[in-house]
Amino acid sequence: MKVVIAGSSGFLGTALRHVLADDGHEVVRLVRRPARAADESQWDPYAGTLDQAVVESADVVVNLAGSSLLGNPHSARFRRTLHDSRVVTTRLLAEAIARSDRVPAFIAQNGSGWYGDHGDELLTEDAESHGEAFMTRVCRDWEAATEPAREAGSRVCVLRTAPVIDRDSLVTRVQLPLFRLGLGARLSDGRQWFPVVSRRDWVAAAAFLLEHPTAAGPFNMASPVPPTNAEFTDALADSVHRRAFLVAPAPVLRLGAGALAPDLLGSYRLVPAALEAAGHHFFDQDVRDVVAAGLAHP
């Protein structure tokens, strides 16, 4: 198949395009700079420019574009960039798909924050979105931006992705140095559910959905056994042979993380029900599997 990928230079996009190329698929990368290779095509989502012929020729379009969550959450500019980098790119691609005669499939990244805080409720893909937290609203807009493609008859898969645990992921790069110094801490009381997924499982699941012509709808990209934040904290501490005695109090997190605090303190008990029902098998079943896979040497 011919697969067009936006966000192909990120740590998920890089891994996915290598797997797809190894599986014999033709991959075209959408890049913001002038194209320098035969497998690249320039686009500017904020100017609304995209080579329609590239989308027209695709079997599947994948959007993994989005700015980093690392920044100043108290900044209106940061929040606007975080929102628009996800929603504008998704909408432009969805509209290009809708204009296509062939109507390629659309694999669209999203976040587990779509659900909002559900306490101890087990969250399959049938659960509703709750609350008005910043990232919950971003994820709603992000998912809604796929509608032009869906309305045109495209097979749309929305990847509601939990934090990805990997040496190159944001979660790990921020926390691992602290844990190695014995400064690891659970977030508040740690009882909130904190879904995670390994990069190899995320990539395998994305490739599975891309290659299965009947797969459509939202998919939770999370390990089958969801951990609490305390369980994740213990697993990460054990992986570096340290203990995590510290606690990051909720008021401090709310002050420091601002609009992103609900994602740290909220409870998201995700399970990948739709993927498992479709026949996909996960390598890493629980948080200790995920941490071990994410921190393993290449």
Question: Could you describe the 3D structure shown?
Answer:
Helix content is 40%, strand content 17%. Helix 1 links the parallel strand 1 (2-6) and strand 2 (26-31). The chain has helices at residues 11-22, 52-56, 76-99, 134-144, 147-151, 170-180, 199-211, 229-239, 250-257, 261-265, 273-277, 287-295, and strands spanning 2-6, 26-31, 40-42, 60-63, 105-111, 122-123, 156-161, 164-165, 185-187, 197-198, 217-221, 246-248, 269-270. The chain has one domain: NAD(P)-binding Rossmann-like Domain (Rossmann fold, 3-Layer(aba) Sandwich). The chain has 12 helices and 13 strands. By secondary structure, it is α/β, with parallel strands linked by helices.
Domains, number: 1
Using only C-alpha atoms, the radius of gyration works out to: 19 Å
CATH topology: Rossmann fold
Pairing-aware structural class of the strands and helices?
Answer: alpha/beta
Number of H/I helices: 12
What brief labels describe this structure?
about 300 residues, alpha/beta, Rossmann fold, 7-stranded parallel beta sheet, two-stranded parallel sheet, 12 helices, about 15% strand, globular
